[in-house]
Amino acid sequence: MTSKPRRVPLNIQPPQQKSERRALLWEILKKLAVFAKPYRLLIVLTLALTVLGSFTAQVNAFVLRYAVDGLTGIVGLSDPWQQGAKLLAVISAVLLTKEVVSVALSFGQRYFGEKIRINLSRDLSQTVIERILTYKMAFYTSEDNASGKLQTRIDLGVSSLTSLVQNFFIDMLPLFANAIVALVIMFMTNVWIGLVGLILIPVYFVISQKQAVRLQGFRRQFRRYREAKSGQVISLIGSISVVKSFVREPIEAQKHLNIQDEMTDNQLKSRSIGFIYDAVKTFIEQIGVVVIIVLTAYFVIQGQMTIGMVMFHVLLFQNVAAPIRQLHRIYDQINTALTYAEGFFDILEDDPQIEPKGGLDCQHIKGDIEVKNVSFTYPNGTKALSDVSFSIRPNKITALVGLSGAGKSTLISLLVKFYAPDSGQILLDGHDLEDYDTQALRGQIGLVLQQNHIFSGSIVDNIRYGNMAATMDDIINAAKKASIHEQIIALPDGYDSAANSLSGGQQQRIALARMFLKNPPIVFLDEPTASLDAIASQQIKKSLDLIKQDRTVIIVSHNIAQIIDADDLVVIENGRVVETGTHEDLYAKRGKYFEIFSAMSDSLNLAKINSTLHQ
Questions:
Q1: What is the dihedral of CA 276, 277, 283, 288, to 10 degrees?
Q2: How far, in Å, CA of 503 to CA of 532, rounded?
Q3: Three-state DSSP class for 521?
Q4: Side-chain half-sphere exposure of 479, counting CA atoms within 13 A
């Protein structure tokens, strides 16, 4: 019999103090008010309909009192049927009229409340997406912002905030309006009866508050479980080929089961606590009903009230108790909103992550780049570069050479302003790179990575991403330069075929076509032919030779042919520049470049290739 796997509890922060929660709630409400401001007329209209609807909700109590008292008087008559028929006709007419008015008011109130909720959901979702698009690359590489966690925080943040609005305008607001009106009527008929209803409110409030505080830790824990689960599923899908190749399906299933078990325990504990508190509140409500009946009966016996007042007060008391009975829902929504909205607004207001905007003109960039004493550490603490200095001449090809992990791709990321150096300076045409507007600068740079993203959609849409104003002729010419045109037209739907159905090598050429279409003055190539076969690589080399002309090109490659074509070489080892110069000069030095070049040559078995070619 296998033992149950040990669970490692997530790191749960201690519950916030009451004053902290109130302060946080007030801050969130102020932030939410900014989004609600455009819909203030809808809010006023919803509130007005809610108030009117609260008065119609009390009609049943008046009608029932009138019916009981009327029937009591009619019963003693010798011929009660005629008076009884009139009484029933009046009651029926009032109730039906009330129902028609109530339905109309309820529809308007719920419709406008739902409209507010839907519009807020749209605005919150759109705002956070537009916001994170302005953030630095470091934001996305942070462990806290892993794709699964970030998606969960955004989705749950929006849903919790909009659910709070929905519960307030559609569910709870009418109930509380009914309760206030009913309580006022109870006081107007008898102060003692009104006091019973009034005393119920603080009792329920205290119980619901204790219930909410008790459940707060479970909610925070459940949030972290959901984020972990979402991230695990995304990771599983992304690594499914590795999982299957190593036959590790049982292990991955067990990982998921561990989280599911923790979530199950969390939910059961929170539900059991909720059931206990609900039972206590129901018992207290029944005590209130008993007291109302006893008090009203006393006044009836004293001749101060009619028999109909018994049901009248009971119905009014039910109108008061109904929203108070659901008070924990408000606390649930508030605390859920606090739990998720806090993380949501943290994303929305992460100002240090916004990419800086400069004012320098990027239209006439030459491509004269100078890297001075640059050091850089990734957000996760990995030291990538240390005191790196070198120059890149305009309209020349510069190759970054080094073993895997040396820091070559990191330099590309710094030159494109995906990250900023920890220290040192990068100059472009004599100006600090930080002084350039980030988006305008990237508009002048072409970037082809080892793994390029292909968007869902057609091939033509993916290529046009390089220049949204490009014509179909421009797209075809770019595809020809990337040596992919013939393969595209051979597809059943040609350029309208789905791009993500292409092979890895074909997708790489789509990315190259995208870059050719952009036609920038500066080009960064990070292993541009890594996913291509020998023939395709040769075809792409010819295309790259064309785009290298009269441009500043920085290339990272382990391909000998691409390296020796470069005008300048920068050799990097363990995050430091160890050699710079031409291929001939560095080879003659017999240093690090000589070692790397010799290893590349040996891996190609050039001696046997040469003998074969000369047979």
A1: 180
A2: 10
A3: coil
A4: 24
pLDDT of residue 389: 93
Pairing of strands 397-401, 423-428: unpaired
CA-to-CA dists, residue 586 to 557, 568, 591, angstroms = 17, 10, 7
**Average pLDDT over the chain, rounded to an integer:** 80
3-state helix, strand, coil in the chain (%, to 5): 65, 10, 20
Residue 496 is classified by DSSP as: G
- In the prediction, which pLDDT does 15 show? 43
Nearest to 57 by CA among 176, 229, 205, 227: 176
Q: CA-CA distance, 296 to 309, in Å (whole number)?
A: 7
Residues in the chain, pLDDT under 50: 1-15
Strand locations in 10-93 (E): none
DSSP state of 8: -
Strands 568-573 and 576-581: antiparallel
| 552-573: burial string, b at 16+ Cβ within 10 Å, e else | bbbbbbbbeebbebbebbbbbb
pLDDT in tens, 354-366: 666 666 777 778 8
From residue 422, give the alpha-carbon distance in Å to each of 188, 388, 449: 72, 12, 24
Contact 203, 284 (CB under 8 A): yes
pLDDT of amino acid 209:
72
Strand order through the sheet with 576-581: 445-448, 522-526, 552-556, 397-401, 568-573, 576-581
pLDDT of residue 332: 66
Measure the CA angle with vertex 48, ends 42 and 51; round to 5°.
Answer: 140
Judge contact between 432 and 416, C-beta under 8 A.
Answer: no
Any idea which residue has 């009104």 for tokens? 194
Cα 423 from Cα 426, distance rounded (Å):
10
Q: What pLDDT score was predicted for residue 3?
A: 40
Q: Residue 124 corresponds to which tokens in the numbers above?
A: 């919150």
Mark out the alpha helices in 416-559 (DSSP H runs): 438-442, 459-464, 472-481, 485-489, 504-518, 534-547
**Encoded tokens for 472:** 């179909």
SS3 state at 2: coil
Residue with tokens 């505080």: 213
| Whole-number Å distance between alpha carbons of 504 and 177 | 62
d(CA 205, CA 326): 10
DSSP symbols for 24-71? HHHHHHHHHHHHHGGGHHHHHHHHHHHHHHHHHTTHHHHHHHHHHHHH
Domains in the chain, CATH or no CATH each: 33-353 (1.20.1560.10), 360-444+557-604 (3.40.50.300)
Chain centre to alpha carbon of residue 143: 15
* Lookup: tokens for 553: 């090109």
pLDDT of the residue at 208: 73
pLDDT in tens, 369-389: 999 999 999 877 889 999 999
